[in-house]
Write the structure tokens for this entry.
Amino acid sequence: MSAVVVVGAQWGDEGKGKVIDFLSEQADVVVRHQGGNNAGHTVVVNDQEFKLHLVPSGILYPDTLCVIANGVVIDPKVLLEELAYLNNRGVDTRRLRISSKAHVVMPYHAKLDAVNEDRRGDQKIGTTLRGIGPAYMDKAARVGIRIGDLLHPEEFRERLARVLEEKNHILSRAYGVEPFAFDDLYTTFLDYGQALKPYVADTAIIINDAIDRGERVLFEGAQGTMLDIDHGTYPFVTSSHPSAGGASIGAGVGPTKIDRVYGVAKAYTTRVGDGPFPTELTDAVGDDIRERGHEYGTTTGRARRVGWLDAVVLRHAVRINGLSGLAVTRLDVLDGLKELKIATAYEYEGRPLTEFPDSAWVFRDAQPVYETLPGWDESIGTIRRLEDLPTNAKNYLKRIEAVVGVPVVLVSVGRERSSTIPLRELF
């Protein structure tokens, strides 16, 4: 196999960064294909913690080519700061390539994000206020600015003048916000373009050529399936496609070239932001899991909402993504709990639901139907073989396989790169 997609099987924050980092050791190319700096991956290598928002996790390997593809929306200021952060820590970023077709997140996008979220009041979505949604809106409306535009001063001037007139009109007239000065934006983003120019390329050619040569290409998504704009808990979703199909469009690679898709899921469930969450724990158990798992957003620092594992959500992720297997992370966070619960179905208005409902209102009022399993007392953070896990931990994994319908192919028992237990060949 040469092309593997890794997706989040829940609401994001599943530990994809660690799984991708683990697989990147075998990869020749790692591709980020959607989202923006509203997402983050934390990778721990030799007790050093790296927080990444736009740059693919494979950058931590010296021989891996990393690609930010066309489906990503890029805040150049954030990207340049991230590159400086990595360079200052001894990471060589010259192996990065950025698609000329990737859209640019402009300051007016972040401002529109903030005023729109404020206007929603109690109905707010819970965005990160990074301007990601408005940037994707401009892309769909065909008024967006792309990375390649920043390299052509006259074309950029024309496009910026046209769109800024509209954005300033909306901001000043509808929201009473100070308009943006054209000259400031134009000069600043031309400079950003020159700083990024050495990295800019037609990345679809790079990726397809690598696959055709038989190289190992790993596609890295941000967020998770339940935040997919079509297949997630709409409207409490992101503005792109974190599901596996998004890799084809977001990287310019035909679906026939994808060999395998792995989903990543925590041994429990978390979500950031608003929206329904049937298995949410609002008691001391939830607080305990949150603290043990350091469940705070990489990008925002917000406390994540915590709940029991939801097999209905995972079965939905299996179907939507065509998952070949599941990587289960943070199993060690459950150490010492006397009992564990898995939601195997929901109940709605007195009737059982075994599949994820297509109505947001049904999902909002669905009640989880739990299956209870015994926990384990042992600390598993130093275990490196499946057979050495406590019996109840192995039984928990077996039950996940049974109720979700795909095999568990990898288990993570800690934050370190070394605390990863592959159960089969993944590439």
Summary: The chain has two domains: 3-92+202-422, 103-199. Residues 153-175 form the longest helix (23 residues).
